[in-house]
Design a protein that fits this description.
The protein is 32% helix and 18% strand. With 219 residues, it is α/β, with parallel strands linked by helices. The protein has a single domain, classed as Aldolase class I (TIM Barrel), CATH 3.20.20.70. Strands 1-8-7-6-5-4-3-2 form an eight-stranded parallel beta sheet. The radius of gyration is 16 Å and the shape is globular. The two termini are 12 Å apart. The relative contact order is 0.16.
């Protein structure tokens, strides 16, 4: 079984104190920093761009897990790679040629992820699985934090885990959307090994970030 990793989403952080928030996450044992990039087009919200990521990267020694919810995505990949993204995750729907975009990320020496929205089928990415470092299963419709977890996506996680084992592949399965102390256990049991969480990490237990990260990681 792969090590369970926690990738806190800074979408739920105090944006006026992002540098300090990232240092707190790192001190509390976070494995990565999850950065949601939204364009107001592919998803109905706007967030941060490459200059902010570049500035924030100075405050962290752990990887930046950058989820690009922008369309068209291909022309922006290099900008986010140069800004400090360590993992770049894209959606199949945001590129004219998914294989070219995957190869672009790999050429830039970054880990490559592909994200599946709740309604997106695994079959769309199945022939690329041997090239992927990470598959992000969305357990909400992307665009806003604080949404309710959709349990039906766990079937997709289970299927990906079976494929991973059968084909002896090594990609990580990440899950993002409404993750709390209860459904995190279900996600891990289904095969997810990276949990993205924002509200639960920053708001639960009076904001005790270390306690919340430890609770999410426990099975």
């Amino acid at each position: 079984m792969k090590k369970i990793q926690i990738s806190p989403s800074i979408l739920s952080a105090d944006f006026s104190q992002l540098g300090k928030e990232i240092r707190k996450l790192e001190d509390a044992g976070a494995d990565m920093i999850h950065v949601d990039v939204m364009d107001g087009h592919f998803v109905p919200n706007l967030t941060i761009g490459p200059p902010v990521i570049k500035a924030l990267k100075k405050d962290s020694s752990i990887p930046f897990d950058v989820h690009l919810m922008i369309s068209p995505v291909h022309k922006y990949i290099e900008s986010y790679a140069k800004a400090g993204a360590d993992v770049i995750t894209i959606h199949p729907e945001t590129t004219d040629n998914l294989e070219n975009s995957i190869n672009k990320i790999k050429e830039l020496k970054k880990k490559v992820g592909v994200s599946l929205n709740p309604e997106t089928k695994i079959e769309i990415i199945e022939k690329y699985l041997d090239k992927l470092d990470l598959i992000l299963v969305m357990s909400v419709n992307p665009g806003f934090g604080g949404q309710k977890f959709m349990p039906q996506v766990l079937e997709k996680v289970e299927k990906l885990d079976k494929i991973r084992k059968k084909k002896e592949l090594n990609f990580d399965i990440e899950i993002d959307g409404g993750i709390d102390f209860e459904n995190s256990k279900l996600a891990i049991k289904s095969g997810a090994n990276i949990l993205v969480s924002g509200t639960t990490i920053f708001k639960s237990n009076n904001g005790d970030i270390k306690k919340n990260i430890d609770l999410l990681r426990s099975v």
